[in-house]
Design a protein that fits this description.
This protein is an alpha+beta fold. The chain is built from one helix and nine strands, in the order H-E-E-E-E-E-E-E-E-E.
Amino acid sequence: MENSQNNGSKRILLIVALILGLGALGAGAWGLSQQKAKASLQAENESMSQELGSLNDLKEDLASEVDSLESAYQTLAGENETLQGSLADAQSALARKDSEIKANRGNRLNEVNGLKGEIQQLLAEKANLEQVIGDLQAENQELKERTGQLERDLGSARTENTSLGNLNKTMQSELKRLTLANFKASGFQVEVEARKPKATAASGKARRVKVSFDLVDVPQEYQGLRPVYMVITDDKGVPIQGSNIQERAVVNGTSMDIIAVKAKDINITATQRLSFSHELEEKLRDGFYRVSVFTDIGMLGASSFRLQ
């Protein structure tokens, strides 16, 4: 029994010892944990102190920026008030100007319309003047061309007149030299006809040359059957093509050779009208020509014609 009690006491002591040991271990562990917590709190305190310092610095910077912004705001507010006044003045001036423009708009519109009308009239006058100038220029050009042509024609006419004058001088000289005083033609006429019996002066159309004349009061001694010759020469006295009748006439005792295009024997009476006709074998060129009529004792008459 006593052993049983001792064993029970030992158990109790052992339990108490265990409890005390466990308490000691718990106290040590708690102290260690408290020490760690304190160290952590100190670290956190230091971090928060540093952060607080940074926040204070940021606060001071922000406060400085706020002051600067307030100063800028005050400046801008003053400028805004000034601009508001300037805007009001500008709006007032603009309103006055707008009123003036509206008041003058009618007059300006009338002036513009008037100017447009004047401009249209001036443009029309300009177009008319340009047309007139163009017409005048064309007319001047035409006049220049016509003047040039007239000058050329005048030169040609002068040359032709010279040729005609020389031809007439030669013809008159021959008439005086080769005709008899009381046996010569009067009313001497020369006509040039085209293919159809129609007069022409175009060298390209001339197909026939006709001559007619009168013999009046022919002395008895010259009457009777006589040969009559038709001679055609150019302005230089050269017989035309087809002149192949070669004869001889005696005038005032002087013998002369002639080349005729036509010859026929005619009974010469005191008064009569004679005619000859010759069909051209080739076209004649432009220029002057002479038709002469001879008998065996002299020239009866002559006349000239022109082809062009």
